[in-house]
């Protein structure tokens, strides 16, 4: 082999070695990128699961909120009905007191006897 051929062979070997080193570096870089992609995919999967769970929780909380609103409306309606009943009972109690006072006035101040006991205001009192 001539000197020129040796130099060409040496140069070609250097080029091949350099390309081999570049390929190894690219392989390492590609491996790191693949690891990053896998980590990101795992993170994406985890976040998708969290998102799914949160959406489910939101749906449950919204349903609970609607149920509570309906319950509040029902309780307010019941309260209004009870307040109306209380008003009616108070009015009726007032009328009964007036009638009792009228009867007391007609009887000369004596309290009428009911079941063997004198009737007092405390007997007919409703805890209002």
TrEMBL record:
<dbReference type="GO" id="GO:0036064">
    <property type="term" value="C:ciliary basal body"/>
</dbReference>
<protein>
    <submittedName>
        <fullName>RILP-like protein 1</fullName>
    </submittedName>
</protein>
<dbReference type="GO" id="GO:0005737">
    <property type="term" value="C:cytoplasm"/>
</dbReference>
<dbReference type="GO" id="GO:0060271">
    <property type="term" value="P:cilium assembly"/>
</dbReference>
<dbReference type="GO" id="GO:0031267">
    <property type="term" value="F:small GTPase binding"/>
</dbReference>
<keyword id="KW-0175">Coiled coil</keyword>
<dbReference type="InterPro" id="IPR051241">
    <property type="entry name" value="DZIP_RILPL"/>
</dbReference>
<dbReference type="GO" id="GO:0051959">
    <property type="term" value="F:dynein light intermediate chain binding"/>
</dbReference>
<keyword id="KW-0963">Cytoplasm</keyword>
<feature type="coiled-coil region">
    <location>
        <begin position="2"/>
        <end position="99"/>
    </location>
</feature>
<feature type="region of interest" description="Disordered">
    <location>
        <begin position="100"/>
        <end position="128"/>
    </location>
</feature>
């Amino acid at each position: 082999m001539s000197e020129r051929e040796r130099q060409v062979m040496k140069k070609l070997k250097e080029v091949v070695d350099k390309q081999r080193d570049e390929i190894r570096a690219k392989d390492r870089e590609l491996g790191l990128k693949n690891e990053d992609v896998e980590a990101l995919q795992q993170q994406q999967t985890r976040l998708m699961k969290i998102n799914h769970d949160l959406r489910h929780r939101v749906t449950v909380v919204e349903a609970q909120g609607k149920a509570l609103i309906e319950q509040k409306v029902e309780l307010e309606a019941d309260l209004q009905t009870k307040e109306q009943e209380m008003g009616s009972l108070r009015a009726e109690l007032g009328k009964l007191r007036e009638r009792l006072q009228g009867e007391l006035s007609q009887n000369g101040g004596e309290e009428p006897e009911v079941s063997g006991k004198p009737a007092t205001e405390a007997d007919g009192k409703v805890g209002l």
